[in-house]
Amino acid sequence: MVSVQRKAIERLYRDECTILQRMERTDPVTKLTDFAETPLVQNQPCKLSFENAPTVSGGTVAAVSQAVKLFLSPDIAIPAGCKVVVLHGGQELVYASSGQPAVFSSHQEINLNLLKEWA
């Protein structure tokens, strides 16, 4: 049953994502340590889901918030804080994962925030 359900969900995947993690690396010559983006997964089929929250009025400016969720295979281990680059409808969107993924037998869901800069 899970296999059938998983195949049905994966048919909905129209996007592709690359997951990047900041890894510490030490230059063997200079012995300086810095961080580099290391791909964990590339060109992984996925699906982006967008949910707009109602307009919130506070003061003189109204704001609209948007929740973005990434759906992909449960076989991939994605730690919190990774950079997620999604090719969605021919457009490249860059996000930061905002927490631990919710992993189910048929898929996993990761809430995303727009990436402004590395923390």
Give an account of the 3D structure.
With 119 residues, the chain is mainly beta. The protein is 8% helix and 56% strand. The protein has one helix and nine strands. The chain has one helix spanning 2-10, and strands spanning 15-26, 33-52, 56-58, 61-63, 66-72, 83-88, 91-97, 102-103, 108-114. It has a six-stranded antiparallel beta barrel with strand order 1-2-5-9-7-6. It has a two-stranded antiparallel ribbon with strand order 3-4. β8 and β9 form a beta hairpin. The radius of gyration is 17 Å and the shape is globular. The mean pLDDT is 86.
Task: Profile the largest sheet.
Answer: 6 strands, antiparallel, barrel
The H/E string reads: HEEEEEEEEE
Round the Cα radius of gyration to an integer and report it: 17 Å
Helix count, DSSP H or I runs of 4 or more residues: 1
Q: Would you tell me the structural class of the helices and strands?
A: mainly beta
List keywords for this structure.
119 residues; mainly beta; 6-stranded antiparallel β-barrel; 1 helix; 9 strands
